[in-house]
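Input record, target 12 of the design panel.
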């Protein structure tokens, strides 16, 4: 009777969902805390916290046990602080609760290990209870299970109809035992997947071949999840099918990751292809893995001509190739990237200046798996720079040739001749003309005209 009661309790708790069990554990811990608070320090009931902790370890997982251990110790510490117990040192209350938490954790790990061993023993006991008449059937069934992996395991008869209960399927879909039997399980599939799924299933049953399909199953909460379903027939000695054994593997997370990866790849490929700079991917041996259209346009190659080839093909010489490697890759190993200006060669042999940035592709452990290089043709920029330098040089020469008048100039007060820096006296117009850019034209002012030629002036 005692074993039967324990078995019923075990079955009941096993069938409960993890959220239900965790919530129940929290409630039990809180109830123990209330009792602990009411009884005060006279009655130590800390050991009772182990009841919900142990149940959470056995029927949920070790992490739930650790969580309830922390909650229990936290409640104990709070009660001690509220009670205002006096200790010889203020940290003793924290030490006591830390020791208690450590004790709970040890119990959690011990029970977790015992749970694993218990599950092994239960499985072994079930195997031992099989009758000799079912031994061959069980051996064949589990040999077939080796060929597949499972989350929702199931079996059907030779005609592909479910006759036995499928607890895992019912737990996931919320269907009743009778609803699943026959072909009723298909009612839990997404409407868009039913026809395709049944066509493949009927074909597998007819041809006695392995069955594999992806479809969406409606969970008990109404949410559809993606599953990969596989099944193989178990044959009798005469070659006829004894039964079908299958499993449904939840691949929802994988599908989401694949879709996210495809979207990410599309975004980055669009970004790379729309770039006007040449972009290429290299492996660790500096061989070209792939490139964008801008690279092909810049160097004049077709894609099939460069993929798999060494990056040496864009260097004008072996010396250039090796010099770049010795210069760039030690820097990349240290800082992750290298930027410089370099001379590269077009397919037709024309060498042109370019600005290039090469970055390392690293794994989380820091190891380098390849490189990304960006190359920009700077021929026009270099030409503009040369023109600018030429213009600056010409301006500097022009400024150097400009003659200026400055300082004190000795001038005769009578004839107005100016003495130059060599001691010679020159006409003022000659001196100014030699020391500036000015040129003189001769004329006569009105005053001089009246004085010198009065007859010509009215």
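The sequence produced for target 12 reads:
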């Amino acid at each position: 009777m005692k074993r039967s009661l324990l078995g019923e309790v075990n079955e009941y708790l096993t069938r409960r969902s993890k959220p239900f069990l965790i919530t129940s554990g929290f409630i039990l811990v809180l109830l123990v805390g209330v009792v602990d608070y009411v009884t005060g320090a006279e009655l130590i009931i800390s050991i009772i916290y182990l009841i919900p902790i142990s149940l959470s370890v056995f029927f949920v997982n070790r992490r739930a046990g650790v969580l309830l251990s922390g909650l229990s110790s936290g409640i104990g510490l709070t009660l001690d602080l509220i009670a205002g117990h006096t200790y010889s040192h203020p940290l003793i209350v924290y030490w006591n609760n830390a020791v208690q938490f450590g004790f709970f954790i040890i119990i959690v790990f011990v029970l977790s290990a015992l749970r694993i061993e218990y599950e092994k023993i239960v499985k072994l006991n079930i195997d031992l209870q099989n009758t000799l008449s079912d031994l061959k059937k069980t051996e064949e069934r589990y040999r077939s299970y080796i060929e597949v992996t499972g989350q929702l395991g199931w079996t059907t008869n030779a005609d592909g109809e479910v006759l036995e209960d499928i607890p895992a399927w019912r737990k996931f879909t919320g269907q009743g035992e009778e609803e699943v039997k026959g072909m009723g399980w298909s009612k839990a599939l997404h409407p868009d997947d039913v026809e395709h799924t049944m066509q493949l299933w009927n074909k597998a049953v007819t041809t006695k071949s392995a069955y594999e399909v992806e479809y969406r199953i409606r969970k008990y909460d109404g949410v559809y999840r993606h599953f990969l379903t596989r099944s193989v027939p178990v044959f009798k000695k005469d070659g006829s099918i004894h039964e079908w054994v299958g499993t449904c593997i939840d691949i929802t997370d994988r599908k989401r990751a694949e879709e996210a990866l495809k979207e990410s790849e599309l975004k980055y490929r669009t970004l790379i292809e729309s770039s006007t700079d040449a972009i290429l991917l290299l492996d660790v041996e500096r061989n070209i893995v792939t490139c964008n259209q801008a690279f092909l346009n810049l160097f004049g190659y077709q894609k099939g001509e460069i993929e798999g080839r060494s990056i040496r093909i864009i260097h004008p010489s072996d010396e250039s190739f090796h010099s770049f490697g010795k210069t760039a890759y030690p820097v990349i190993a240290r800082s992750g990237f290298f930027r410089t200006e370099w001379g590269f060669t077009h397919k037709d042999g024309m060498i042109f200046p370019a600005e290039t940035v090469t970055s390392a592709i690293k794994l989380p452990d820091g190891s380098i798996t390849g490189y990304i290089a960006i190359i920009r043709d700077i021929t026009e920029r270099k030409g503009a720079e040369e023109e600018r330098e030429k213009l600056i040089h010409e301006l500097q020469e022009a400024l150097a040739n400009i003659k200026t008048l400055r300082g004190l100039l000795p001038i005769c007060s009578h004839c107005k001749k100016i003495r130059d820096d060599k001691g010679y006296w020159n006409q003022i117009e000659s001196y100014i003309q030699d020391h500036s850019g000015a040129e003189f034209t001769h004329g006569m002012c009105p005053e001089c005209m009246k004085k010198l030629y009065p007859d010509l002036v009215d």
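The first helix runs from residue 2 to 15.
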